Each structure stands twice: as structure tokens, then as C-alpha cells.
Amino acid sequence: MATERGRIQISGFDPDRVTERESLSDWSDDSSTETMSRWKRAGVRFVHNYSAMFGVLIVVLMSLAAIFARPISIEGFTVQPFSLAPYDPETILYLDPSSDVGIYSAPTPDHPMGTDQNGRDLFSRVLIGGRYSISIGFIVVGLTASFGMVYGAIAGYYGGWVDEILMRIVDTIFAFPGLVLALVIVTMLGKGYWELILAFSLFGWAGYARIIRGEILQVKQQEYVTAAKALGAGDFSVIFRHIVPNAMAPLIVQASLSIGTVVIGVAALGFLGLGMPPGTAEWGTMLDSTRQTLIQGPGGSIPWWATVYPGGAIFLFVMSMNMIGDGVNDALDAQEVGNVRQGGG
Amino acid sequence: MAQNANRVSQLTNRRRILQGLGALGAASIAGCFGGGDGGSGDNGIDPVQNRVTVDPEDIVEGGTFRTAIAEPVDSFDVPYSSSAAASNVHNLIYEGMITTNASGEINSWLASSYEQVDVQEVEAADYEDYMITAEYQDGVPQVDDQIVLRHPDNDPTSSEGQFLTVNEAPDAVDDGTYGMHYRFDLHEGVEFHDGEEMTADNVVASYERLQGSLNSGQLYDSLLDIQADGDYTVHLYAQLPDAQAIRNLGGWEVYPTAVTDLPPEQNDPRQGNTPLGTGPFTFEDYEDAQYVTLSKNENYWFDTSKKDWYDGPSEFPNGPVVDEVDISIIPDPATRSAALQNDELDMAYGLTASTLNDYQSSEDYRTAATSGAGFNFLQFPVNVEPFTDARVRRAINHLIPREQIANQIFSGWEDPAWVPMPPIASQSGTSDYDQLVDDLKSYNTYARDESDSLVQEAIDENGWETPIDVTIETNSNSDDRVRLVELIVESLNQSDYFSANMETYPDIPTWAQEFYSADYAEEGVLSFIGLSSGFGPHGYAKAIHHPDNYRQCCNFMNINDEDLNAALQEARYGVEAVEDRQTRQERYDEIWKMILELNANSYGTHSTTVGVVRQGEVFGYNTYPSSQSVVPYAMYSPADEQIVYVDR
């Protein structure tokens, strides 16, 4: 019997087929790129969100208009010399004998938004009005989000009775409507810029604290957190280097949506006569000072410009901020599958 | 008409009120009307602009007159009420022995006649023999009974002082020590709403009801004692020979025994007691902060034939002709305006100036304007540098654009205050108002160059730095006032010498806690507020200058100019001031000049009271100078042949 022993033959294996076959994946060394970070990915998605970008455009334009409306001096030193607004927002035009405008003069080319209840140029006031509303919005959100983040992180990370105490305080704050709390604070402290910031900041952090706590309860279960602890990282380092950065997304979404809410809150207090001192070129306060014109005598016409333009400015800014907030929400939403390329094999 | 409203009292405790008697009667702030002010009351100029009259034959009886006031009735118990709006209700229900028409003339009312029996040269120190000694505690005299007079040498910082109370005053009168003596003879057969017949005892009890009350200071500013003589004669004694005594003393409300027997503050429907008086309307219903309804007093006592002073047609009605008055409480001027246009009201007052222009140009409405009894003013912290220098104050005064204020902010409804007294007080306040304006206007013109040179002079002399910081405070719930201060601030900021800003308080009661405090005069801020006084000149000068009014209405800054104080005393008190009107007028002419030289206050505009009625439905409506009696005056004031009827 002639057998060929000792030789193993493998049939059906054709290395050429393997090396020369069509690639199953389009991956190649050349096509390989570095993994895109979550933030970068979000940025790309945000930039492709046209409504959000439109919001950014409006907010940037309004912010620039507010900054460059009138020169800014700090301790006598002019840091911003430009002056887009044609008139000083405080100038009462009819005080000049040569002026032909009075109170509630209708819009003209010289005064494109007319004049207000004291004969001041409304266009200049609307431009500069953004300084109050926009800056208060950003400062309040910056303060509240930062404090809420730390507060919520501590509550979520330590859990137990610390969490219990901290979150009951948050529950207490949530028992009151935010605007009512702000109203109480302004009534107690009086009107003014920093008073308004305090009014919205003092209790405004609670929402952020609750969000970040919820996120942290999830993130702290992750193995990399256990690993960090096992490697001897301290609590501070674990919270702020490993947990918080991974729990930030919902906080940022909340913050971007809140700016609009704060701005409209400031305007609401202004309209109620509790915001800035009367006569200040703040949008809500401007609306308040023309409130009496809404009901005219018989045959009287409402000076629509006095309410429409400041009201329009509030609308435009808050609408834009909400569009941005929605864009940020879409960009950071981990649940959603978007246009990121998937691997295959 | 003598309800004397005063917010000051509301904010001070009872002791303080007793202590601060003297000044309260003169004037008050922000829409309240200080009744007691002089003016002898004849040859008055009618302040009502374009007065409409009614032919008695055309009058249609019946119907309801609907109007609105801006505040709830704080109390129906007049001695405890400080609201000018509430006085519109009070004056429909209650009446006094005298009444005052729109030009300030005094006429007998519940009294059939009154006469000044006697005037004698007496000073406060002459009562020394009757005074009791009482301790001061924290500057407040520890006296339980109503203080009538305090010894001029009293020093509240010492341990004790001498006081004349209501208990000792009758002894002084019995001995013939008094400044003035008035005799009032009452009408017989006048019935209160509860059917009781009015007697002299009711009058005395009603006046005594003011003792220790919120408004006691306004009566005991002048009153020494009141005594009944039989059933129908009342004797009133004034502390000093006082040119405005009659106005201070004669018009207080008279109540039936059912009211005078009530404890303090109980004469109020909210306490279960129906307000009762002799007035042309009887109380029907009150819903707090909602409405008051009153119905015509079918048993009204008045008859034009009872009055010698009445010289109108004999057919003129003997009381109001509408059956019912409904008064809604609507705080917001725009809401009142809307209610008027929606046919929910027949008359609205206190509307914003720009709205008034619309009403004026509408054929469906009539605007009835009357020169008011007040002005707005800016008070300087005269004890804080650099406002200690009259030149700095006058420089600021020259930067107040009064004409623009009147034309732009008040749409021409108020007049620039060229002199520190509204025209309504000109009867006793000047020998010739137009001449006074001509003489003094230059002090108050808008003159930037003049301002610059005045302040430069002061700066050169004292070495003060410029710009001078000027903080003006006001109350933010008055839109017009805020706009006015904004204008002054802007005007000051256009000068290189001043750096001005405005600070606001939400309302006057909140602000009052500050401006009645001891520290306020030292804070260096300026106050912008309104003053409402009466038909006489004295209140306009004294209330905002005299040390008696420090920490009261309305000398917030402790202004104390001895020459001016002496001139004020001389113009009102003393036999010569009482008996010789011309001398008094000339003395006031001097006072206005002194005031403008001193410039411790600057004046904005003289007020105007404007009511708007529905044309073709409401007939005969005219507005009273003071917002305190807009409704009662319109309903029935035979001295001016004033009556309103409704024909829908």
C-alpha cells in the first residue's frame, strides 16, 4: 500500500486569494486617522447645525453692538474707543433748543427707532441695552453652573448622608418658583446690576446641582473610576479629573439654554419695575417705562416703537440663545447616532 | 373741606405725633392736602379753567355718578385717615361748620354764621402760668393728654419741659388768655344720618375726638379750646393771633353721638359701624380695595335760602341731584383711563398728562382743569458741603429747565414754577401775582452761563473739586417725577461742574423712613418730591423751610434760616397780620424773595388738577383745586353754583 505518510497537505488554502482578494474594509494604514474626541465631534456637529449657527451669529452681533455702542472706560482709561450708537443713551434730546424731537417722536432717518418717554434716542438705547441683559445672562450662568457643578459633584460622589442633606436643600429651593425668589431678593436688596446678578445666582444653581449629581451617580460606577481610586487618586482628583469631565455634557446643555431664561427673567423684573433703576437703558426697564402708553386716551395712537424695539431685542436675543442651546443639546447628545464613520470588517 | 391728610403721621409713633404737633397742619407731601392754611377768603380768583355752569331748569334728577379713586379708603374715621383719595369719600358723608369754595373763599355751612369776636396780642410764653411740667424721654414729652402748646424755652434734650394740655387750656380761656376768639352759631334742625339733631355738644365732642389721633396736630396747631354755649353756639379759641386760624379751626367734621362715643378708629364699616354725618350722601356699602357706594341723603338739611352768602338763582337745587355715587378703587391711571373709555366710569382724575391730550382733542369727553394747590420741589442738603453755599444751590437751580418740564413732561398741563407759591395762594400771598412773577422769574430761568459763573465763583473761593457729585432721590412709582428728575440729572451732567445721578425708592412710605430719619440731612443727597398745601401762602413757605418741620413734612434737610423764620412768624402771627391784609401780602412778597435768595429748595412746576368726564352724559362737572375733594365739590357746592347731573 503505497501511502504517503508524513506529509500534510492543506487544500483549499490559497494565499494569493487572501492577499489579492478585494478588501473587506476600506481601512488602510493611509486612511487611518486619530480617534476624534467627543468634544471635537460635538463641535463638528454644532457647526453643521445651521439654526444654531444663526443663533450664534445674532448673539455675536448683538454682543458686539453692545460692546461697541459707546466707549468703555475703566478708571478713566478708555479701553474701547468705538461708538456705534449715534447718541448717548442718557441724552435727553429736547434739552437742546435746536432739537426738533420731543418725547415719543416717531422713527425718522435720524432716529431710526424713534425716541422714548423722555426724548432719548431709542436706537442708541436698544444697542447699549444689551450690555446689561447679555452680561447678566452670561455672568449668572457662569456663576450658577460652576457652583451647581461643584455642589452636585460632591453630593453625587460621596452619596449617603452628605447627598441626603445637600439634595434636600436643593429640593427646598425647588419648592419656590425661581422668578419669585429673584423678586424677593431684589425687593430686599434694591435695584441694580449686581443685585440682579445676585438675585438670579443665589438660588439659580440648584438645577445644575441636580443634573450633575445624576450624571455623577452613573459615571462613578465606571471601571476607570475604580481604577483611578485603586491607583491611589484622592477624592478631589477623582471627582474633578475623572468624573466631572465625563458628566459635563448635560450641564453645558442646561447652561446654554439658561442664558435665555436669565435674560428674560432680568427683563421681567425690569418690566415689573424691580430690575435696574428707572431710566436705565435696560430692555425690560425700557418696556416698563412705556407701560402707561399701552392704554391711550380716545383717538390716541400708541407709540409702538417704544415697546416694539426693546421687546424685539429681548425676543431676538432669547430666541437666538435658545437656538444655540438646542444646537448644543443636539451636538452633545450621546444617544443620537450621527455622521461619525463606523468601522467594519 | 378740612380733612387734613398727612402721611407723616402714619409713619411716626403716637408719642412723636404728639410731640410734633405744630407743623403737621401746614402742608403735606405727594398728593395729600394740608388743609390749614390762611387766606382771608374774599376777592378770590376762580382757579377753575373754562368753568361750565348748569341752568337749574335743565337739571335731570336721579341716576348714578360713577367715578374712581386711586387708593382704598384707609379709614372712614377721619381723625385716623391720612389718604387724600379717601377724603373724597369722607367729604360726601361728613360736613363741618364752614366750607371752602374752589377759589378758597370761606363760607358758613353747618354754622348759620360765624364771627371773629376778639383778637389780642398773646405769645406762647404768656401761657406759662397754666403749663404743667413733664419729663422728656428721648426728646419726647411724657404727657398723656393732648398737648396744646409747649413753652418756647423748652429744650427736648433736657430732662423736662413745660406744656399746656387740653386740661389747662380752659383755665387760660376763662382768664382771658387767648389769641383769638371765634363764635359759631349753628343751624337748628340739622339732622345726622341716624336722625339725631345736631347741637353744639356734637361739635365739641367731634373736635375732642381728634385728641391723640393721627391728625391731632393739624387741629392743635391752632386750637386752644372749644366750648359749647347752649345748644347752638360754639366758641373756638385760638392760641395766638393767627391770620389763618379760621381755616385751621372751622371746618372739622361733625359727627353724631353714635360716632363720638366710639373708641378710636372704630368709625368704620370694617369695624361693624356705619359712618354717620350730616352730609348730602349716606353710606351704603364698602368692599375693601374694590368700591364704595353712597346714596343721596333724602333728609338733607341744606337750603340755599338759609345762606346769606348764596346769591345764585332760587331754583338752584338744595342738594345733589344724583341718587347714587359709586366710587371704584383703581390704582393704575391707565386702568382708570380704560374704564372711562369702556363706559364703566363717568369721571376719572389723576390721569397721565399725555392721555389728557387725547381726551382734550376728543369730542366724546371733556377735560376740566383747575390750577392746583401744590408744586414739586428739589430740596438741597444745606448742611453738607458744597451745598452749604447758596451759589452752588442757585447754580443747580439755573440748570432746571422748567419750560421743558412743563411742556414735555406735563404736556403743558402744569405751569413752570417761577415763584415758590402757586397762583391759588395769591390772595394773601402777594399784592400782585403777575408783578411777583416779573420780579422774581430771573431767579428761576434756565441759564447755563449764569450757572457756570455762580459755581465757579464758589469753587474758587472754597477750593472744592469738580465735578461736584449730585445725587437726587425720588420715588419711582411716579412716572412723571422720575422723568423729571432724569431731565434735571441730564441737564446737570451737561455742565462740566456737576456729575449727577438719580436714586429711587419704590414709594413715598418707604422713602419716608429715610427722609424722616435724623441722619438724612447729613447724607448729602437732594430730594425731589411734591408738596400739597392750601389756599393760603404760609404752608408753601414754612413747610419746606422752618425748623418746626424738620423731620416732618417737609424740611428734610434741617433748613434753619433765622431771618426767614422771623419773617414767617411776622407774616402770619400777630394782630397786625390778622387785621391788615395788605401788610400781610407785602410781608409775603418779601418772603418769596428771601426764599429764592436762600435757594434751599428749587421749584419745578405748579400743579394742576384735571378731571375727565363723558361728554353728553355728565353735565356741570368742574374740578376742585385739591385732589382731596374732587368728587364732593363736583356733586354739590352752592357757593360756586356747582352741581353735576347725569343724563344718559
List keywords for this structure.
heterodimer; A: 345 residues; mainly alpha; two-stranded antiparallel sheet; 12 helices; 59% helix; elongated; disordered C terminus; B: 648 residues; alpha+beta; eight-stranded mixed sheet; four-stranded mixed sheet; 23 helices; 28% helix; disordered N terminus
How would you characterize the overall build of this protein?
The complex is a heterodimer of chains A (345) and B (648). Chain A is built from twelve helices and two strands. Chain A is mainly alpha-helical and 345 residues long. In chain A, strands 1-2 form a two-stranded antiparallel sheet. The radius of gyration of chain A is 30 Å and the shape is elongated. The model of chain A is unreliable at 334-345 (pLDDT under 50). By secondary structure, chain B is α+β, with helices and mostly antiparallel strands. Chain B contains 23 helices and 26 strands. In chain B, the strands form seven sheets. In chain B, strands 1, 16, 17, 18, 19, 20, 21 and 22 form an eight-stranded mixed beta sheet that branches. In chain B, a hairpin with a 3-residue loop joins strand 11 (223-229) and strand 12. Chain B is globular and about 75 Å long. The A-B interface holds A 90-92, 94-95, 102-104, 117-119, 191, 273, 277-279, 289, 291-300 and B 333-335, 337-338, 341, 351-352, 354-359, 361-362, 364-365, 401, 404, 408-409, 476-477, 479, 482-483, 486-487, 490-491, 493-494, 502-504, 506.
